[in-house]
Amino acid sequence: MKATPVDEVNWGIYVWQMPDGSIVRDEDDNTLNIPSVRGDISQIKKLKKAAQELGLEEGHPLFFSGHRRITDEELEEQKARAQMGLVPDPLDMPAMMEYVRDMREMELG
Fold it and tell me: Given strand 60-65, what is the order of strands in its sheet?
């Protein structure tokens, strides 16, 4: 049997991927990205323009379903939540719903 990933939501971010598979990042490890829904041509054009302004003529947009931009503070908070065994991102609704379901099953089980 083969596992096939299933996108849970139609929103996320597009990042710029180079032909070698790497994702474009700056010196602070920030990813070149744009929030979008899957297939939003206007957002894809904006990302392509930003890549070209950086001198990147090669590459293509790559969509990550359910991902969103976060601040450095949110990242630290998510790391702390993960260490406590919680869903790292409190805005990740599919994961939160699964967490609540699992907790209920444990209580009933």
Answer: 33-37, 11-17, 60-65
Q: Once rounded to an integer, what is the mean pLDDT over residues 68-94?
A: 87
Model-level pTM? 0.72
| Whether residue 80 sits in one domain with residue 39 | no
Same domain, 75 and 52: no
Beta carbons within 8 Å of 64's beta carbon, 6+ residues apart? 12, 13, 14, 15
Name the DSSP class of 21: S
Number of domains the chain contains: 2
Considering only CA atoms, give the Rg of the chain: 17
**Are residue 18 and residue 65 in the same domain, yes or no?**
yes
